[in-house]
Amino acid sequence: MLALLALATAAPSAGGLAVGSAAMLLGCSLRCWAFSHLGAAGRTRDPGPPVSRVVTGPYAHVAHPVYLSNLLIAVGMLLAASPPWVLAAGLFALLASLYFVLALRESRQLAQVTGTRDGKQMSWWALARSERSTWLQLAVFQCCLLPQL
Asked: Which one is predicted more confidently, 125 or 58?
């Protein structure tokens, strides 16, 4: 939805696309690092309450690295598309609010967890396979912007 609204009003520039692409790459890198430690359990659509807390990789530094990476990707998309600033600010505020609510809920669940664990290291092949929809969406987004330069 964010991508469609940004694309509908896009006015990309070479500079915005370069900076936005860098932010998206940073977000994707953090996302891959997080999922490489979280393992396949983090890819479920209907997660139950956690039974242990991952404390390795990015989880040693940030409580919710997947949410942070998703926000970086969204910022990159907005920078690359360069929609009107009011729309960009509104979309970012909406997305940040949603992730804030999710992070609060998850933090409350994790506060009840006493056990910790080292992350399950996913192979790069398994990681690339599990993130294929992310790669595809970002590639399509970029391809839609390039002709508008």
From this structure: 58
Across the chain, mean pLDDT equals 84
Closest Cα to residue 66, out of 22, 27, 115, 105? 27
Which residue ranges make up each domain of the chain? 2-41+50-148
28 vs 36: CA distance, rounded Å: 12
In sequence order, what DSSP letters do the residues of 43-96 get, joined into one string?
Answer: G-SS----SSEE-SGGGGT-S-HHHHHHHHHHHHHHHHH---HHHHHHHHHHHH
Q: 110-129 pLDDT, tens per residue?
A: 888 877 777 666 676 777 77
Cβ of 38: how many Cβ atoms within 10 Å?
20
99's CB contacts (< 8 A; 6+ apart) are 64, 67, 70, 71
**Overall pTM surpassing 0.70 (yes/no):** yes
Is residue 148 over pLDDT 80? no
Instruction: Return the higher-pLDDT residue of 145 and 57.
Output: 57
Residue 127: partners with Cβ closer than 8 Å, 6 or more residues away: 32, 35, 36
How many other C-beta atoms lie within 10 A of the C-beta of residue 72?
Answer: 20
